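thread: overnight batch results

M.L. [08:02]
morning all. the overnight job finished for the chain we discussed friday. pasting input first so we're all looking at the same thing
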Amino acid sequence: MRAAVTGGAGFIGSHLVDALVERGDDVVVLDDLSTGRRQNLNAASRLLPGSVTDPRRVAEAVRGAEVVFHLAALGAVGRSIADPVGTNRVNVEGTLNVLVHSRDAGVRRVVFASSSSVYGAAAAVPTPESTPLDPRSPYAVSKLAAERYCTVFGDLFDLETIVLRYFNVFGPRQRPDAAYAAVIPCFASALAAGVRPTVYGDGTQSRDFTYVSDVIAANLSAADAPSTVSGSIVNTAPGRPHTVLELLGTLGHVLGVDPDPIFADPRLGDIRSSCADPRRAEAILGWAPQVSLVDGLRRYVTWLTTEQLSSSSNS
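M.L. [08:03]
and the structure it wrote out:
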């Protein structure tokens, strides 16, 4: 299969490219390398440097593809609050470019990476896909708008679409030194360095953490599922919430340290609890996560330690 992956040099996208190459697919990556890294790229893939905001580059990337995996985005709630216009341009206009040119190129299916942030402070936890949506940041609004475009294109045109709503994905290549770094890289790097980690809020807020290999398996299932899944929106998470303090304690156990966090005010746009109802993913994709939180954290810590040793030896 010929596949195009937008954002394929990023944390999640590069793992997806690896999986596609491993199963024998011909893979083109579109990435402007603003947050992605060349070091992440599989040597068997072909990189087209460029942004999803550039229609000509998008058209080139999707030409001849059977499936397009659209992961390119400006992530992070905080970044979107600081730059809502830039977030909208990449996440909404960029998605529209991908859909238009996929349609025009005769692509069979677009698999879109959305976010649990579209739920906001959902009344139902665990949260099924039918829950009323309440986006509470520009980032969440941009993901919801992109979802709607996917649904409309699937209804109007000869283009299958499926939306995967990610919940707190973590794993190797997720860097603690990135702008707006996620909680697991921040906690792990702080604990490994003997630094007190910062907990925003009281630490009882909960999240549904998903190891990256499970997300990749969901993408492959979404690409290969029968045409009847077109138009579906699917939660991609274990459905097992953990509080921030539980996460910190588990990381401390993995690293052999006793965490002593610093508590700070909650961040703007944060929500109290996020947990998926994963039953639809199992029903229509045959997908269920395989990696527990503690096993995923062990794998992440192993990668982070190796990465830090490599950086030290090269400096």
